[in-house]
Amino acid sequence: MIKKIYKSILAIIIGHITVLKHAFKKRVTLEYPEVKPLLNDKFRGEHLFDINKCKACGMCQKVCPANAITIIKDENGLNEYSIDYKKCIFCGNCYYYCNFNAIMPSSNFELACSSKESLVITFKKAEEA
User: Fold this and answer.
1) 47-124, what's its fold?
2) What's this model's pTM, rounded to 2 decimal places?
């Protein structure tokens, strides 16, 4: 009986010491919507795509391990380029292997949406007059 009381009191003391130890440390949690986190320079977020730089070589589509990139080309070159964020694992292969710098990373990480269809981003070549 005395042994149980001793263990309970010891557990309470250890709990209070733990709380006091962490009470004076710098906080880790951010107030997220109001305070944006500081991101590393190498952060890979949403893709920035320049359809005018793309030569439709298909290298990004070949190196994508998740098959998230689709390129549709016609006789004039690139016609449509799409990225499926439901599949994308943000590995960065498409950025690294693009010889024309047509696709680059951005720091936008807020990709939440209410429908799955809006996670497929499509870029189309403007019709030339």
Assistant:
1) Alpha-Beta Plaits (3.30.70)
2) 0.69
